[in-house]
Inverse folding.
C-alpha cells in the first residue's frame, strides 16, 4: 500500500501591517529612540564622505557600549561562579566585536582628499577621547590614571571611569575564578599553563574553554586596532592625530600590544 503523502502546511493569508496608531510616532520609533538617533547626524562640511565618517563613529560608540555591557555581565557572572552565564555574555560580546571590526568597512574607501576636505571641522576631536572606549581599555586591564584628566569637566563620566579604573579587570576576575576552582594563581601565567597542562584539574575542559574565549576577545581587540591603523594610514598617512597624538606611531604601538599577554605567552610552553 503506497505511503500517504504528507499534507502541505496551510499558511494564513497575508495581512497588511497595522498603520494607524494615533500617536506622534510609531511604537518602533518610540521603543528604539529612532527619531532621536537620526536627529544626531549633523555634518559640518559639504564633503559627502563626512556623513559616512560620523555614522561610523556613532555606530562604533554604540558597539563600545554594548561590548562593555556584555563584558561587565561576564565579570559579575564570574564573581558569582556562574561560568555558563559568563561564557554566554562573552560570546555575545564576540558577536558585537565582529560587527565593530567590520564597521571600519564604512571608511575603508575614504580617500586622503576626502578626509582632508572635512578634517578642519574636527578641530581637536579624536576617537582617543571616547570615554566608552576607555572603559573597554580599563576592562582589558590597560589602566592609566592620567587619562581621567580628559573628563575632569564631566563629573559623572569621571566618577564612572574612576570606578572602572579601581575595580578588577575582566582578566582579574577570570584569574580569581581560577583560584576559586583550586588553581594556584600566585603566578597568573603559571596558573593558565596548569589549566592546559594538568588534566587532573577539576573542570579542566571548562577552564580551557574560558581561556580560549578570552583569547577570542583579545584577538578581536587586536583586529580592531589593526583596522584602525590601516584606515588612518590610508586616509591621512603619517600626519599627527587631531587629538595631539603622533598618529600612526601611536596607533601602531597600540596594535602591537598583546591583550591578555599571559594567555599568549603560555603558547610558548605548551
Amino acid at each position: 500500500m503506497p505511503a500517504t503523502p504528507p499534507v502541505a502546511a496551510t499558511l494564513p493569508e497575508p495581512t497588511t501591517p497595522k498603520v494607524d496608531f494615533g500617536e506622534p510616532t510609531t511604537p518602533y520609533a518610540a521603543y528604539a529612540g529612532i527619531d532621536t538617533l537620526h536627529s544626531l547626524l549633523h555634518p559640518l562640511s559639504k564633503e559627502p564622505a563626512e556623513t559616512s565618517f560620523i555614522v561610523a563613529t556613532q555606530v562604533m560608540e554604540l558597539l563600545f557600549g554594548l561590548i562593555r555591557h556584555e563584558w561587565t555581565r561576564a565579570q559579575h557572572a564570574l564573581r558569582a561562579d556562574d561560568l555558563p552565564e559568563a561564557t554566554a555574555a562573552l560570546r555575545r560580546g564576540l558577536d558585537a566585536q565582529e560587527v565593530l571590526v567590520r564597521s571600519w568597512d564604512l571608511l575603508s574607501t575614504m580617500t586622503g582628499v576626502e578626509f582632508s576636505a572635512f578634517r578642519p571641522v574636527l578641530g581637536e576631536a579624536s576617537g582617543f577621547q571616547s570615554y566608552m572606549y576607555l572603559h573597554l581599555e580599563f576592562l582589558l586591564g590597560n589602566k592609566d590614571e592620567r587619562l581621567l584628566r580628559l573628563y575632569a569637566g564631566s563629573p559623572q563620566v569621571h566618577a564612572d571611569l574612576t570606578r572602572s579604573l579601581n575595580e578588577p579587570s575582566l582578566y582579574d576576575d577570570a584569574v580569581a575564578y581560577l583560584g576559586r576552582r583550586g588553581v594556584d594563581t600566585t603566578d597568573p601565567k603559571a596558573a593558565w599553563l596548569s589549566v592546559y597542562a594538568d588534566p587532573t584539574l577539576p573542570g579542566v575542559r571548562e577552564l580551557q574553554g574560558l581561556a580560549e574565549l578570552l583569547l577570542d576577545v583579545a584577538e578581536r581587540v587586536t583586529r580592531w586596532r589593526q583596522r584602525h591603523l590601516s584606515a588612518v594610514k590610508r586616509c591621512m598617512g603619517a600626519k599627527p592625530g587631531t587629538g595631539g597624538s603622533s598618529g600612526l606611531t601611536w596607533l601602531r604601538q597600540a596594535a602591537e600590544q598583546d591583550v591578555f599577554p599571559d594567555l599568549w605567552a603560555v603558547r610558548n610552553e605548551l
